[in-house]
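Pipeline run #58 for the internal structure catalog. This entry was flagged by the ingest filter as a single-chain record with no existing model, so it goes straight to prediction. Upstream metadata was stripped on purpose; only the residue string is passed forward. Reviewer on rotation: M.T. Logging verbosity set to normal.
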Amino acid sequence: MAKSVRTQLADAHQRARDLSNEVHTLQAKLQPYERQVEALKRRNVELQMELNRVADGPIPMLLWCPQCLERHIDKALADSPHHTHACQHCGHVWRPAIVRTVGVQFLPGFYDGTVASGNPRTRTHPGSGENIPVTVDGTAVSELK
C-alpha cells in the first residue's frame, strides 16, 4: 500500500536529521586531525622560512678566473655574498654559479695545513720555486716529452 505524502515527508525529514547527526559526529572525529593538519602547515611554513634564510647565505667556492686561470679569493667582500666575481689579476668578470657565492682560500672543513694558492694548472718546481704547467693529474708538462 502506498504511503501518504505526509508520511513520505516525515520519513525524508527523519533521514535528513539522521544524516545531519552523522555529519556532526564525523566533524567531531575530524576536529583533532584538523588541528594536527594546521600545526603541520604552520611547521611547514617555519621550515620554509628557515630554508630560505639558510639558502640566502653565500656558498663558499674555490674559484679560478676562467680567462687567466689565477686563483680568486674574495677579501673585502668575503662577508657579502654576490653572483658576479671580478678577477683581481686580469679584471675578467664572470659568474661561477647562479646562486650567491664567495671565493675562499679553503673550503670549510677541508683545511689540511697547506696553503692552496696560485693557478690550479701549475705547481711549484722543487728546485727553482717557479710555477710550472701541469696536467690534470699533476704531472709536469715538461716531464711528458
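catalog note: The first strand starts at residue 59 and ends at 61.
catalog note: The chain has one helix and eight strands.
status: ready for reviewer M.T.
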